[in-house]
Specification:
alpha/beta, binds flavin mononucleotide, Rossmann fold, 6-stranded mixed β-sheet
Length: 186
């Protein structure tokens, strides 16, 4: 089973989250390709797709949002999971609410789930503008990524794919019509 992971990351923390998801899915026997959204291939040829982005001022990074929009039709035809990396803080990560965009993205591609995963912020690496925004919203400095939660999201994806594969409807496209269907036609 081939799984495509597409991510957008400004300072690298989402890229590392994508790598951890790839590792967990690979350990579950999936063939995984992970790509930056700016250069990612189309979903064609993949059985499932996971798309994620760092969240900035309530929005996904443009490359990830553009990928979802550009490939919406192909994404709708296969199982898709989305994740956003953003809230910061150890005790009570903020902002607590999912970005408004999350619901729209889920609806656009019929995603199975949207996971909000805590992120990381290293003030010293931020651009001047980002540093000013981070200061204005009092964003805490530190790495708050929860690798257990990241792995459990990945295992949820693997569980769902395995349960799809063992369901009769997914096993064969040529399922014989049931007697009641045939009866209805006569
Ligand atoms: C300028 C700035 C704005 C941010 N805005 C949000 C936000 O609106 N919501 C959120 O959940 N996280 C926000 N964050 C936190 C980032 O999403 C978090 O640091 C994430 O791990 C960054 O991912 P990246 O390293 O892949 O770019 C913001 C961070 C910065 C620096």
């Amino acid at each position: 089973m081939k799984v495509l992971i597409v991510y957008a990351s400004k300072y690298g923390s989402t890229e590392e989250v994508a790598e951890a998801i790839a590792e967990a899915l690979t350990a579950r026997g999936k063939h995984v390709d992970a790509h930056d959204a700016a250069t990612a291939p189309s979903p064609d040829g993949y059985d499932a797709v996971v798309v994620g982005s760092g969240v900035y001022v309530g929005s996904w990074l443009k490359a990830a949002a553009r990928y979802v929009e550009a490939h919406a039709a192909a994404l709708r035809q296969r199982p898709v999971w989305l994740f956003g990396v953003g809230p910061l803080g150890a005790e009570n990560p903020q902002p607590a609410e999912e970005p408004e965009q999350a619901r729209k993205l889920v609806e656009r591609v019929g995603a199975r789930d949207y996971a909000t995963l805590t992120g990381a912020l290293d003030r010293d690496r931020l651009s001047l503008v980002d540093r000013m925004i981070a200061r204005a919203v009092k964003a805490p400095d530190g790495d708050f990524r929860d690798w257990g939660a990241i792995r459990s999201f990945a295992h949820g994806v693997a569980d769902a794919l395995e349960s799809d594969a063992s369901a009769p409807i997914a096993r064969g496209a040529s399922v014989a019509p049931s007697a009641s269907t045939l009866g209805g036609r006569s």
